[in-house]
Amino acid sequence: MDVSGQTRIVTREMHTAGEPLRIVESGYPHVLGETILEKRKYAREKLDELRKFLMFEPRGHSDMYGVILVEPDHPKADVAVLFMHNAGYSTMCGHAVIALGRYVVDKKIVALNKPETQVNIQCPCGLVKTFVDCSNGVPGKVRFLSVPAFAFDLDVAVEVEGHGKVKVDIGYGGAFYALISAEKFGFSVRESSVRDLTEIATKVDRSPTGSGVTARLAVQYKRGLIGLNQSRAFRSVIGTTFTGSVVETVMCGDFTAVVAEVSGEAFYSGSCTFTTEDADQLKSGFVLK
């Protein structure tokens, strides 16, 4: 789908622990498909210009994140979501799930219940159960239970330009992550500059990364560094935190997996109406690398 002067998309802006989220509210075409994976494929193949329109500059930036609410096909889901970012469509995003839990209750898509409201969100990786604290009569902090997460492989040797071979752990938390301590590159996440960190990682999440926390918990459990129901705080480069714990062990194929609980808080930051003009050569967006 091409972007034109008739393109008009309305969004609600939120952030979770500093990481932005752009929620599409209107103006986005109907996403076809019987299943959420078919819808994801359709968006990628037929509507990708709109992802670039919303995620790229001048309306977004290389670290922008967005979601599109679609009809669920899971019988227990309240809503379904497609995640999008500067490079494509991810299978899971924990910070987005935390924000959506609050958003869905605020929009009365799911009725508020005290002291806690459950919102089941169908993601491309599976059904994610979120629990919104409503003890004060309004939505507050949110926790979610992950899909089965596991350590796919440990101490995998990979070649990193300028650093030679390094060993990483591969963890799955709804999406796959290569996990390595910044100290192995001579950096400190808390003390090194963002510029130094991005030279290695190309981008830095403002939040502790919800699905990344899930993957880290799975790897830590595999290594015996955390036990069942043991809570741990994960701090971002800007000082915001998520809390995570392993609450259950399950089998996922041949892997001994865990169900992780991750909690955080999301806030509203604005509303936007995005438009363009046919004469604008940059109407589809651009990425400055």
Tell me the layout of helices and strands.
Layout: E1 8-16, E2 19-26, H1 36-46, H2 48-55, E3 65-70, E4 79-85, H3 94-106, E5 116-123, E6 126-133, E7 142-145, E8 150-160, E9 164-172, E10 176-179, H4 194-201, H5 210-222, E11 231-235, E12 241-252, E13 255-264, E14 266-275
Describe what this molecule looks like in 3D.
The protein has helices at about 35-45, 50-55, 95-105, 195-200, 210-220, and strands at about 10-15, 20-25, 65-70, 80-85, 115-125, 125-135, 140-145, 150-160, 165-170, 175-180, 230-235, 240-250, 255-265, 265-275. With about 290 residues, it is an alpha+beta fold. The strands form 2 sheets. An 11-stranded mixed beta sheet has the order 11-12-13-7-6-5-4-3-2-1-14, sandwiched between helices. A 3-stranded antiparallel beta sheet has the order 8-9-10. A hairpin with an 8-residue loop joins β3 (about 65-70) and β4 (about 80-85).
* Uncertain segments: none
What is the overall number of helices? 5
Q: Span from first to last CA?
A: 25 Å
SSE-based structural type: alpha+beta
